[in-house]
């Protein structure tokens, strides 16, 4: 999992060669509620590496998050795109519970800047789908534009 995150960071660094873009690491915590029989209060963290365009009011990047609820855990790696104050995150999700280990995908529309309300839809199979709502609290750390691999 860490290798995928680091490889994605380097891939984004190769792409970002424009002087009107900044690269940030954005860690954050989340609290939410997952609906359904296996649901409950959801806690987690998220780390994203984003490229912020200074000319188009948009940002894009990769994201990794980890969620726990009841005896369940979800690991998600996604691509995110945000325009002004609304965005979407899409990617594979690895779901683990005492009785099930499967892979699916997740779609997360979100909004805001430092406090981001979200809706999370995770599809594992036709019998295992999760609907979750909650809020991220995220910060931007440093401008890593100096790290561009040109």
Give a written overview of the molecule.
The radius of gyration is 16 Å and the shape is elongated. Helices cover 9% and strands 65% of the residues. The chain has one helix at 2-15; strands at 21-34, 40-53, 58-69, 72-83, 86-97, 100-111, 115-125, 128-138. The protein starts with a helix and ends in a 12-residue tail after the last strand. It is built from 1 helix and 8 strands. The protein has an 8-stranded antiparallel β-barrel with strand order 1-2-3-4-5-6-7-8.
How are the elements arranged and paired?
Blueprint: H1 2-15, E1 21-34, E2 40-53, E3 58-69, E4 72-83, E5 86-97, E6 100-111, E7 115-125, E8 128-138
Antiparallel strand pairs: 1-2, 1-8, 2-3, 3-4, 4-5, 5-6, 6-7, 7-8
Q: In a few lines, what is going on in this structure?
A:
9% of the residues lie in helices and 65% in strands.
Notable traits:
150 residues; mainly beta; Porin; eight-stranded antiparallel beta barrel; 8 strands
CATH class group: Mainly Beta
Count of separate structural domains = 1
The chain-level structural class is: mainly beta
Order of helices and strands: HEEEEEEEE
Helix content: under 10%
Evaluate the radius of gyration.
Answer: 16 Å
Distance between the termini: 26 Å
Mean pLDDT, rounded to whole units? Answer: 85
Q: Can you list the strand order of the major beta sheet?
A: 1-2-3-4-5-6-7-8
Largest sheet: 8 strands, antiparallel, barrel
């Amino acid at each position: 999992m860490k290798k995928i995150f680091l490889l994605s960071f380097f891939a984004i660094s190769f792409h970002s060669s424009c002087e009107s873009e900044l690269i940030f690491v954005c860690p954050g915590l989340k609290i939410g509620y997952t609906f359904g029989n296996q649901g409950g209060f959801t806690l987690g963290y998220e780390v994203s590496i984003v490229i912020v365009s200074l000319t188009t009011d948009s940002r894009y990047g990769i994201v990794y998050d980890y969620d726990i609820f009841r005896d369940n855990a979800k690991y998600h790696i996604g691509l995110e795109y945000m325009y002004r104050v609304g965005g979407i995150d899409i990617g594979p999700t690895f779901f683990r519970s005492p009785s099930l280990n499967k892979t699916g995908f997740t779609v997360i529309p979100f909004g805001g800047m430092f406090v981001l309300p979200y809706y999370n839809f995770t599809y594992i199979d036709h019998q295992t789908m999760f609907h979750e709502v909650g809020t991220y609290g995220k910060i931007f750390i440093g401008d890593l534009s100096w790290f561009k691999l040109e």
